[in-house]
Amino acid sequence: MSLRVTVWNEYRHERENDYVARVYPQGIHQAIAQGLRAHGLRAVRTATLDTPEHGLSQEVLDGTDVLIWWGHKAHTEVGDPVVERVHQRVLAGMGLIVLHSGHHSKIFRRLMGTTCSLRWREADEKERIWVVMPGHPIAQGLGPYFEIPEAEMYGEHFDIPQPDELVFVSWFEGGNVFRSGCCFYRGHGKIFYFRPGHETYPIYHREDVRQVIANAVRWAAPTPGPAFPYLQGAIHETDPLEPLPEKHPGRTRVG
Questions:
Q1: Is residue 161 a part of any domain in this protein?
Q2: Per residue in 190-211, pLDDT tens?
Q3: Which phi and psi angles does 99 have, rounded to 5°?
Q4: How many domains is the chain built from?
Q5: How far apart are CA 242 and CA 224, in angstroms?
Q6: Residue 162: how many CB atoms within 10 A of its CB?
């Protein structure tokens, strides 16, 4: 069965800013979806903020293997029940790819447990993205580095937990560096944060960026494994695998 991908986007800048509308006339979500389809991922749907349940009903999420998230100016408008729903699905095994300014989304901050704040600057700087883990599946098909001629700068310190795997590090023309491709594991789910993608630059039309996102979708896809009821709290396991001697006869145990 094909991987089922949902691309979520606020879809605000494209409708409110004529310049952004020219860069992404069908919306950032459609540009990302087109790139995924060009890389052989056919079961791709899109969802946006200003639709019922932000387009992320339980039915939609249950039918999603990997969710891609782009947000910027309306993080606070994402309803907490939807955030909780996405969080539960990630713990249960749904992959999550967070792009660019999605670092400040409610869902990413909740999963990271930190502010996820960083330095930033808009000065049309060249970005050189170095592959620092060349054997990782997300780096498949790339060279030692690739360059984006004009980008918004993100710089350290990036207030996130230490990544479980660091795939990319960016250098910017103004001298800043940034951990720009970070992998995390939460419950059964896999999370990838990928830095490029400011709305005023045509970054999601680039083939190298599309390659990374398609690779990340395949990496983040659910992996069959032992079931575990993460959402049911602590599990009282009364029956040991091996017989245990009774060391204190008559003692009452309290859970």
A1: no
A2: 999 999 999 999 999 999 999 9
A3: -110, 140
A4: 1
A5: 27
A6: 8
